[in-house]
Amino acid sequence: MVPGYLLVQYFRRKNYLETGRGICFPLVKACVFGNEPKASDEVPLAPRTEVAETTQMWQALKLLFCAVGLQVSYLTWGVLQERVMTRSYGATATSPGERFTDSQFLVLMNRVLALLVAGLTCVLCKQPRHGAPMYQYSFASLSNVFSSWCQYEALKFVSFPTQVLAKASKVIPVMLMGKLVSRRSYEHWEYLTAGLISVGVSMFLLSSGPEPRSSPATTLSGLLLLGGYIAFDSFTSNWQDALFAHKMSSVQMMFGVNFFSCVFTVVSLLEQGALLEGTRFMGRHSEFAAHALLLSICSAFGQLFIFYTIGQFGAAIFTIIMTLRQAIAILLSCLLYGHTVTVVGGLGVAVVFAALLLRVYARGRLKQRGKKVMPVESPVQKV
User: Fold this and answer.
1) Is residue 360 packed enough to be buried (19+ CB in 10 Å), middle (13-18) or exposed (0-12)?
2) 71 with 328: CB under 8 angstroms?
3) So where does this one cross the membrane (predicted)?
4) What values do phi and psi take at 340, rounded to 5?
5) Are 114 and 298 in contact (CB under 8 A)?
6) Where is 361: in which H helix or E strand?
7) Beta partners for residue 89, in sequence order
8) pLDDT value of residue 361
């Protein structure tokens, strides 16, 4: 990061955009200065399909397709994530087997496949002309790598239901980061629902006893890792919001962020010598290789389902689907891996998801009221 920062500052001080020439000029221009399209060069994104243009049956089938795709992708991803990070591979009657411990290697696999899927989509589907300086993706990439690493590592110390609840409560730090990074203001109902989410998460955490394999110290480590995940993920989402000012598509964003994420994780793994060890672990345990590959496939195609669902039905429908997915994920984890939830903890979970659905309802009413007053452009949605 430091050499890259120094290079960017050097090229800007030298006014390289005006004085630079040679074979490296297009590369430096794209990475440091960007290539903002002129108004005549812009390729408009395809407008969202209106319900009136197609039959209700076709719209219902598309909604079912999106809902099933999102649920299958991310429920499978959640189950496999817990399996990979909390269970042993190669266990026999005489040997306990061994656990996979390097979260960075999993992050790399996820990002490589997502990069390939995004690149293929950019080639096959028409995209707007790219104008953002490439180096700006590196900030979101670095925070994205850290958030993913914290997410995987946290499963070594806390249960999967706790992690899901922490993800559901990230609206609170997202609002804080929005004030700090984007200077946003929020409505009273947004603060109310954020407070309800905090109460629900507190009820769940305080009522649930520690896991059999956990101690208070390791539980604290897990909560600190979850805090790191939420903080880094909140920064990522707000930084990506700022990048969308360059009028890029979501798939272009996906490609740029995953490209730098691959670079960062490869360099880190090579420096630690962990890339070869992760490959050897895959060679020793074919079951792990299958799980890691399926995990990456679910993550990559889940992102495409996100973009398609938001484009067709809007962010409100997408949020409802994903909120239901989180509730089902907690239920699945408790059934498959034996996590216990007390009555008070169950009430806390209900409070959290009720607050999330209340946010969706309030935001939808606010948009309807705004449409009656004056037409406004729908903002570019970011996930």
Assistant:
1) middle
2) yes
3) 63-80, 105-125, 189-208, 214-232, 253-276, 288-308, 315-338, 344-362
4) -105, 140
5) no
6) helix 343-373
7) 98
8) 78
3-class secondary-structure state, position 324:
helix
Instruction: Report pLDDT for 50.
Output: 44
- Which residues in the chain land under pLDDT 50? 38-43, 45-53, 214-215, 217, 371-383
pLDDT (tens digit per residue) in 216-269 = 545 788 888 988 988 888 788 778 778 877 878 888 888 988 999 999 999 999
Q: What is the CA radius of gyration of the chain?
A: 22
Write out the two tokens for 62: 């598309």
How far is residue 4 from each of residues 115, 141, 265, 298, measured CA to CA in Å? 21, 14, 16, 32
Q: What is the DSSP letter of 22?
A: S
Question: What letter represents residue 297's amino acid?
Answer: I
Please tell me the predicted confidence (pLDDT) of residue 51.
41
List the structure tokens of 66: 């999106």
- Return the residue matching tokens 């049956």: 57
- Residues 330 and 201: beta-carbon distance below 8 Å: no
For residue 113, the cross-strand partners are none
Q: Say if residues 249 and 39 touch (Cβ distance below 8 Å).
A: no
Q: What is the pLDDT of residue 167?
A: 73
Stated as kind and residue range, the H or E segment containing 230 is: helix 216-243
CA–CA gap between residue 336 and residue 332 (Å, rounded): 6
In this structure, how many other beta carbons lie within 10 angstroms of the beta carbon of residue 335? Answer: 9
Three-state SS across 94-109? CCCCECCCCHHHHHHH
Number of H helices, E strands in the chain: 15, 0
Sign of CA dihedral 33, 39, 40, 41: positive
- DSSP for 49-90? PPGGGS-HHHHHHHHHHHHHHHHHHHHHHHHHHHHHHHS-BS
The domains of the chain are located at: 1-32
Residue 142 zone, left/alpha/beta (φ > 0; ψ -120 to 50; rest): alpha
Three-state SS at 326: helix
Give residue for tokens 């919001």.
241
